[in-house]
Task: inverse folding
């Protein structure tokens, strides 16, 4: 948690060109996934005639609003594979991008509060070990050793009965991750076009040939959707549907405090997760708001619920002052797993459905999505996450590992 120099101001990190008449690939959405995809297309596949279109500013959506947790301890083989690949990329990302992203591998604790929590958690630990993911079961006293400020008493509503621990997991600076990818993509020849909203698609016999935008028509050889909770809107414009629902997801931060919280603690059962940022503010999240919507704020009762849970688990937080809250728009599938691959429209690809866990997948998803776009074939890491699984029934049910705390 040592203080480091602030990075160069974003305005100087990449060019802001006018859109050209056409590109080999157009990526819709300049969040973490879109920027990473553009970088890996240019770096690994030599495709540099690429535009990333963003209706607002670079990384101004969910990338600017998430709680930055990075982990790979998912239950099923398919999920563990792509998230573990992503975590390995995280571990070398600063060297890869030549840019500081403050990846802090402080570990992540997932708490268990009931006997069923314990059974599910131990099962997940064993599954993780079979997949080569670092994971261990810790008892309440070990939880206390990892996070001394946590309350492990038996006189609270949901006593801590233990938890899973992934030592290699952690947090990173989300803005700096986006800036690092944007900087390198721009250096490799990718056009990052801000304030350019996609309003429609140009079709020719079932194939996409361009996009209509607020800055005019742009021709495209391929189009890759990467717009998180707004992907369903774009898919409707293209004439197909994706099985996602968009919900607001809130987060909040406290004022600055001395460093007292050494790891990341998450609890699905009481719907709260907490870490402490590099500067000292407490970063907290909870479950999604139950209603569908695109508002970037949530309802007060969710904040009230998560704060009561946080204060019970961490009595030291009772006098902390809330600084601000915000919301993002998460795209949730019926099996809590992402969608990545081709679409019914020839030349169009989709990457969405990451729910509340898209940030941790940024490097891995961008890497696999770039392969899919460049080769017209899904990589083995994302082959199981295609739209066709909702027809075949081959779902990847990660609700147990990806429900509330993400």
Result:
């Amino acid at each position: 948690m040592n203080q480091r120099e602030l990075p160069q101001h974003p305005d100087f990190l990449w060019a802001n060109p006018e859109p050209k008449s056409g590109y080999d690939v157009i990526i819709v959405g300049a969040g973490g996934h879109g920027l990473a995809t553009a970088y890996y297309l240019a770096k690994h596949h030599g495709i540099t005639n690429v535009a990333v279109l963003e209706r607002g500013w670079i990384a101004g959506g969910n990338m600017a609003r998430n709680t930055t947790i990075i982990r790979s301890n998912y239950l099923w083989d398919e999920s563990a594979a792509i998230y573990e690949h992503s975590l390995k990329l995280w571990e070398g990302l600063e060297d890869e991008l030549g840019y500081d992203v403050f990846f802090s591998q402080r570990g992540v604790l997932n708490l268990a509060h009931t006997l069923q929590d314990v059974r599910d958690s131990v099962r997940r630990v064993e599954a993780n070990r079979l997949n080569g993911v670092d994971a261990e079961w810790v008892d309440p006293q070990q939880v206390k050793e990892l996070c001394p400020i946590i309350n492990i008493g038996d006189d609270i509503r949901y006593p801590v009965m233990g938890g899973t621990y992934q030592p290699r997991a952690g947090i990173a600076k989300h803005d700096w991750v986006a800036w690092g990818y944007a900087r390198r993509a721009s250096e490799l020849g990718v056009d990052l076009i801000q304030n350019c909203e996609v309003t429609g698609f140009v079709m020719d016999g079932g194939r996409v040939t361009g996009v209509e935008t607020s800055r005019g028509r742009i021709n495209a050889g391929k189009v890759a959707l990467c717009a998180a909770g707004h992907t369903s809107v774009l898919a409707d414009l293209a004439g197909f549907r994706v099985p996602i629902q968009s919900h607001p997801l809130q987060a909040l931060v406290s004022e600055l405090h001395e460093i007292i919280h050494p790891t990341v603690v998450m609890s699905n059962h009481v719907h709260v997760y907490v870490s402490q940022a590099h500067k000292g503010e407490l970063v907290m999240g909870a479950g999604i708001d139950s209603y569908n919507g695109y508002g970037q704020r949530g309802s007060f009762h969710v904040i009230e619920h998560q704060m009561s849970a946080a204060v019970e688990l961490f009595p030291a937080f009772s006098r902390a002052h809330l600084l601000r809250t915000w919301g993002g728009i998460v795209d949730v599938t019926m099996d809590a797993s992402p969608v990545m691959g081709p679409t019914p429209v020839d030349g169009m690809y989709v990457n969405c459905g990451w729910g509340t866990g898209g940030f941790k997948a940024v490097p891995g998803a961008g890497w696999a999505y770039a392969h899919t776009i460049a080769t017209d074939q899904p990589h083995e890491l994302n082959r199981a996450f295609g739209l066709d699984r909702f027809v075949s029934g081959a779902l990847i049910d990660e609700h147990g590992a990806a429900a509330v705390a993400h």
Remarks:
- Residues 74 and 80 are 5 Å apart (CA to CA).
